Amino acid sequence: MATTGFGVIRHTTLIITALLLLSGCATLRQFGPSVQVASVTPGQYIALKRGDILTSGKLSEATTETLRVAGLDETTCAKPGLPCIEAMEASIVVREEDKRSTLAELWLQQAMAMPAPKAKRGTTPAMIVADPGFQPRLDAWMQVARQAYAYLFFTERTANQRGFEDRQTQVRDYYNLAAQEAAVMLFDAYSSQQVRNKDGRLQLGRWTFVLAPADTGVVQDTREPIELVPAASLSFTGTLRRVQRRDGFGAELVAVMADPASDGLAAAHGHGRTAADDAASAQRWSGMPSPSITVLLRFSGGNLWEVLHDETPTVEIHDPYQIAAVELHGQKVPLAANFTAGYALWLARSNFSRQSLRSLFGSKGGIDRPHLFMLQPYDPKRRVLLMIHGLASSPEAWVNVANELMRDDEIRREFQVWQFYYPTNMPIALSHDAIRHTLDDVMQHYDPTGKAQASHDMVVVAHSMGGVISRLLVSSSGDHLVDTLLSTAKMSPRQRELLRTRGAPLLTFQPEPEISRVVFIATPHRGTDVAGTRLGRWIGRLVRLPLTVLEDVAGVDDGGSFDAKDAKQGYQMNSIQNLDKDDAFVKAVADLPMSPQVRYHSIIARANADGPLDKTDDGLVPYWSSHLPNAVSEKVIVSGHSVQEATPAIVELRRILHEDMQAHDGGQK
User: Fold this and answer.
1) 3-state DSSP assignment of residue 528
2) Distance between CA atoms of residues 390 and 388, nearest Å
3) 594: which strand partners?
4) What's the pLDDT at 573?
5) Do the beta carbons of residue 417 and residue 663 sit within 8 Å?
6) Which residues contact 186 (CB under 8 A, 6 or more apart)?
7) Tell me: the pLDDT tens digits for 159-207?
8) CA-to-CA distance for 332 and 159, rounded, in angstroms?
């Protein structure tokens, strides 16, 4: 029998109504798809995928989903706090891996919400530890570290199996931050003597921290820090181009040491000197006072339950320059490192830029003797990369050079960086002599037998006037310097007598045997035109030398007192005048033979790319003065005089060092 149109419509309506009723919400739903789609940008997708409590201030999608699976998102965990954490811990419906990563982030949320004492001038570690919130904050951060540690090493999958998962990176960051905060709090408690210290075990509230023994086979820095600074809390501006890091496991910190060397240098001009200053400056070398370290908290136990109940974690302190990876529960993991923070913090606090100018003009607050800074503790197994700055400069001249080179794993394994800081107002001969003797004293102190690798095949990198000094370090003088000065320099009778009787030891030397390669950067081997101009002579007259130097190089009357008139009429021998192309000293130095055992390279700047090369200069040093005919290599870069900081110069320096390492490994010298 035929069905009427009305019947078909009625029949269809009944079917649709039945389906809607079966869906559970017929009267509330509108017709259409139950799932809608919208477009997101790649950036939005990544932000949603990787965002967490650290980056966005909101819990991550992974934690939110775990709370939802546990049925806690709209109940106990609708608000953050300890009830949510306890409920998550008690849940039995989520995987341990998800539970531990979620608890690490929930504890992180709790720790970040706890107010810390505001840092004010005069705030001491004792005041920080006395704050009533100190122990609860420490407990929260330790819970973050322990939960993250349990997730990383004691859940269903290993760290290697999780591989490139974003969640693992997030939880690793939670651990690193917690280790950082706990380490700083522990240091404050230790500094304020608020912890009980017995046999390397520090008791602080419910936690007993066990100090791990030092790494075997590595050189230890035995100095006691006076401040512990999180590397992540430092932001550097100025000439530093970038921060060099290594991603990995552990808290990146800077251990700031007392720096009697810099204090002594600052007072070395005779103003406000103390016995401590004299003692500090008597030893003309020291370690860089803010080395980078990496701290780990290692929880003990053979299974998840034991780790989650361990309240006796081991504190490990590693030198990231010497240790690249650690083994944790059978897994080798990279050690986090910040190679820039300690070095940059030292330079930022040093006031070198002002001090170097004060030294040049003999002002209060300058220095009057060279000092050698070791950027890492002396290591007998690593060769020395020695850097010597130029006129009116300081270790700041090498900020990007050293920073970039230490990023290179091979260079970092092969070399330890030393930097000389010296007063650039001194006559070049005196600076060279003082640097040479300091270098000899350092080598004798650390390696009296001369058998260590550090005592051989040193590479020297020198800029500007530092290059002239470096050339003297690898040259043979014979009687040439003394004879040339006596025959060509305009000297007073008293100066000639001093040169004959006392100048010979200063101007007679042989190549330093430990140096095997030198890189000369913008070096005026034959002087400059600028130093002899009216402006150069005027600046030269502003340079002031210490009285003891004036007595030696200027003149002394028959009674033994300083004769200013004789000094004015005699040979003017400060650093700027030494760099005049017509100066007798620099002309004599240019003729000295360098050791045939030393390979040398030139990095030369030209301010303008146009015109014949031999007619160019870098604004201060002409090409004809910086060019060495027999150099192993010569790199010409369009740049001003501070070319050592230019990227092409650093690339060339890296190339030279790799060439040197290959030659060294192949048995060549």
Assistant:
1) strand
2) 7
3) 475
4) 63
5) no
6) 138, 195, 202, 204, 209, 315
7) 888 888 999 999 999 999 999 999 999 999 888 877 777 777 888 889 9
8) 10
Q: How many CB atoms lie within 10 A of CB 544?
A: 16
- Residue 193 gets which letter from DSSP? T
Distance CA(606)–CA(619), nearest Å, equals 8
CB of 634 closer than 8 Å to CB of 604: yes
What DSSP state is assigned to residue 499?
A: I
Identify the pLDDT of residue 391. Answer: 87
Residue with tokens 């509230």: 205
How high is the pLDDT of residue 260?
Answer: 67
Amino acid occupying residue 64: T
Mean pLDDT of the chain: 84
Cβ atoms of 264 and 278 within 8 Å: the answer is yes
* Separation of alpha carbons 528 and 524, rounded Å: 6
DSSP bridge partners of 315: 211, 297
- Residue 300 CA to residue 310 CA, distance in Å, equals 6
Sign of CA dihedral 162, 163, 165, 171: positive
% of the chain at pLDDT higher than 90 = 58
**pLDDT tier for residue 43 given thresholds of 50, 70 and 90:** low
* Residue 278, amino acid: D
Q: Which residue has the higher pLDDT, 222 or 308?
A: 308
First to last CA, the chain: 109
**Comparing C-alpha atoms, which of 617, 533, 545, 538 is closest to residue 575?**
545
What element of type H or E holds 641?
A: none
Q: Which range, of 152-161, 264-273, 604-613, averages the lowest pLDDT?
A: 264-273
Six-digit token pair at 336?
Answer: 């986090």
Non-local (6+) Cβ contacts of 409 within 8 A are: 324
Residue 39 has a CB neighbour count (10 Å cut-off) of 5
DSSP-derived letter for residue 453 is G
Phi, psi of 237 (to 5 degrees): -125, 180
Reading the block at residue 617, the tokens are: 């200069």
Structure confidence at residue 253 (pLDDT): 97
Average pLDDT value for residue range 459-465:
97
Amino acid at residue number 647 = T
pLDDT at 237 over 50: yes
| Residue 384 pLDDT | 98
